[in-house]
Amino acid sequence: MPDLFSIDNILFTLGSQSVSLLEFVAVLSGLTCVYLATKAKVANFWVGYLYNILLFLLFYQKGLYSSMLVQPVSFVINFFGHYRWTHPSKGEENKNNQLKITLLTNKKRIYYVVQLIVIAAVWGTALTYLDNLWPEIFREAKRPYLDAFVTVTILTAQYLSAQKKLDCWGAWLTVNVTNIILYILAGLIFMPLVSAGYLILAVFGFTMWRREMKRESTSK
Fold first, then answer.
1. Does residue 40 form part of some domain?
2. What does residue 99 show for φ and ψ, rounded to 5 degrees?
3. How large is the greatest C-alpha to C-alpha distance in the chain, in angstroms?
């Protein structure tokens, strides 16, 4: 693996912890992606593709295999969202001919929560066996159940974002709070600080989307 993409390529330190160039660039792309999403800009998907690739490399090197393995899936969902936002079905479009913002029903919310818990439990259990099945590739997984919960919640949030559901910001808030815990336990000092920034952006995104949703409903 090129030195440029190694966590040993240290850019700066925070306290006793080092921040690699890979981690720093991943954070910058992530913040840019989320900011563009809060503004409902389609450009967020282009930045999101780069973000997926950088996170795959970072999580592999940190032993967060659930978060690593999900990046190809996340990439596909990102592509799906890109298409959905720019190719809405008849009756789903706003005045800009893009997908309009909507809400989930209560029944759908319960469905997603139950699904998230079940899949996270199954996936977390599977992660505990990775190092036994492929010891030449995987080390022992760190915090497998917490890692799995974050991973499945991210996928849920991303899928809801792809469908332009206002509820996605509740999922992103959960992701950011949990990520702060996960990153600290994994020895990532810089990213927990950035997750606090993501929390602020998630609140901002919810406010912006709710305002836009009301604007779209009154402009029919």
1. yes
2. -60, 130
3. 59
Give dist(CA 29, CA 54) in Å, integer: 9
Q: Is residue 196 part of a domain?
A: yes
- Of 115, 124, 114, 188, which Cα lies nearest the Cα of 150? 124
Query: Per DSSP, what are the bridge partners of residue 10?
Result: 20
pLDDT, tens digit, 9 for 90 and up, residues 95-106: 888 899 999 999
Cα 97 versus chain centre, distance: 26
Compute the distance between CA of residue 21 and CA of residue 182 in angstroms, rounded to an integer: 20
pLDDT in tens, 108-159: 999 999 999 999 999 888 878 766 665 666 665 667 788 788 888 989 999 9
**What total of structural domains would you count in the chain?**
1
Give the CA distances from residue 49 to residues 84, 142, 158, in Å, rounded to whole numbers and listed in that order.
Answer: 16, 26, 13
Q: What angle do CA 17, 186, 2 make, to 5 degrees?
A: 70
**Residue 77 structural domain:** 3-87+102-218
Which residues contact residue 116 at a Cβ distance below 8 angstroms, ignoring those fewer than 6 apart? 149, 152, 153, 156
d(CA 170, CA 104): 12
Q: Which pLDDT does position 2 carry in this prediction?
A: 47
Alpha carbon of residue 117 to chain centroid? 17
Task: Point out the residues of the chain with pLDDT beneath 50.
Answer: 1-2
Does 121 reside within a domain? yes
Q: Is residue 138 part of a domain?
A: yes
